[in-house]
Automatic annotation (TrEMBL):
Protein name (database record): DNA-processing protein DprA
Family as reported in the entry's similarity comment: Belongs to the DprA/Smf family.
Species this protein is from: Massilia hydrophila
A Pfam short name: DNA_processg_A
Record-annotated DprA winged helix domain positions: 307-365
UniProt cross-references to Gene3D superfamilies, sorted A to Z: 3.40.50.450, Winged helix-like DNA-binding domain superfamily/Winged helix DNA-binding domain (1.10.10.10)
Length: 379
């Protein structure tokens, strides 16, 4: 889709982008070396004008020499390919110095120099929460992720995840059902879709939110890319919700990075007999906040009033669910049988009713219709 909020880039932008791509792509410099030089000289263009002796005062001689050497053909091709990609609607490149670069991400220890964006880049300025979890998720885990993400979207939060199979996919799907948006941070180039079966989902994310990558165009799905991209998922968000995770799950890496970055970490508890609950239980033992409802997440983020004002009133389509609830406690599985509904859809509708104050969850897992909303606690 065409992003009308930002004008097309100019030739001057193209030259600046070329300098940034050259800086990022110069072999041996890395993010730390680039940041040292940017601090000293102010911009990539100034770095390339400085001369080898001046550069060597800030980085090792080999790096200074590489920056002053002719641009390698492969890097020249990368620059040309990127500028061509940027000429197409909905494609953007954000540099570390751009005003639109996510403020929270800018202050992590190793922010990316460049963010390749496919979709609506203004979404990066919205309040965000990350929802992550196992690729090999259970049906209940996927339903929980969808339901929480949809309710968080209704609360005005942009849901960030990694577009992997399982919980990530469910989180994006749930967020897209709400009025808010979703962002996918991927471990390949922004011009590739991985896994391939999420191609249709990727198009929907780019239409309603955006896809973000720090990797150059054409980068394939290498194993090491995905743990590294997790710092971006947590770095952009105010908090990270882990829905389901095995003991060695990559989601634990995201949660650890979130904690190190000073973000809130939430975890959904599960059965002691489920391998997919082991990671969440480990996080809870290590200090993550155990949450069972969206309101608990929102309250911890000081967003509870926002949730109650942003959550829409129950739609007419909820009348059938309210009738099926009756006025006695009922098990959600029994509701599935009564309604013949999809588990993920039912979970989202129950959460919407809960946010609207028309339903409460009982300690034994059952739900019950209520006649008035409970007052929100202090933030």
């Amino acid at each position: 889709m065409q992003d009308t909020a930002f004008p097309p880039s100019s030739p001057a932008d193209h030259q600046a982008f070329a300098d940034w791509i050259r800086l990022e792509g110069t072999e041996g410099v890395g993010v730390r070396g680039a940041r040292k030089l940017l601090t000293a000289f102010g911009s990539p263009a100034a770095i390339f004008r400085a001369g080898q002796a001046a550069l060597a005062a800030h980085v090792p001689a080999a790096q200074a020499a590489a920056l002053c050497a002719p641009i390698p053909p492969a890097l020249t091709e990368r620059i040309a390919r990127t500028l061509d990609w940027l000429a197409r609607p909905g494609h953007h490149l954000l540099t570390l110095h751009d005003a639109g670069y996510p403020a929270a991400l800018r202050h992590i220890p190793d922010p990316p120099l460049l963010l390749y964006i496919n979709g609506q880049r203004e979404r990066l300025g919205e309040p965000m929460i990350a929802v992550v979890g196992s690729r090999n998720a259970s049906a209940q885990g996927r339903a929980n992720a969808e339901g929480f993400a949809e309710a968080l979207s209704h609360a005005g939060l942009c849901v960030v995840s990694g577009m992997a199979l399982g919980i990530d996919t469910a989180a994006h799907e749930g967020a897209l059902r709400g009025p808010g948006s979703t962002i996918a941070v991927i471990g390949t180039g922004a011009d590739r879709v991985y896994p391939a079966r999420n191609r249709a989902l990727a198009h929907r994310i780019a239409e309603g939110g955006c896809i973000v990558s720090e990797y150059p165009l054409g980068t394939p799905p290498a194993a090491g890319n995905f743990p590294r991209r997790n710092r971006i998922i947590s770095g952009m968000a105010a908090g990270v919700l882990v829905v389901e995770a095995a003991a060695q799950s990559g989601s634990l890496i995201t949660a650890q990075m979130a904690a190190e970055q000073g973000r809130e970490v939430f975890a959904l508890p599960g059965s002691i007999h489920s391998a997919l609950a082991k990671g969440c239980h480990q996080l809870i033992r290590e200090g993550a906040q155990l949450v069972e409802t969206v309101d608990e997440v929102l309250a911890a983020l000081c967003c509870s009033p926002l949730a109650r004002t942003a959550a829409p009133p129950p739609e007419a389509g909820h009348d059938l669910l309210l009738a099926a609830l009756g006025h006695d406690p009922v098990d959600p599985d029994a509701l599935l049988g009564r309604l013949g509904a999809d588990a993920g859809q039912l979970a989202g509708e129950l959460l919407a009713l809960e946010l609207a104050g028309l339903l409460e969850r009982l300690p034994d897992g059952r739900v019950q219709r209520v006649v008035a909303a409970r007052a929100a606690g202090p933030c």
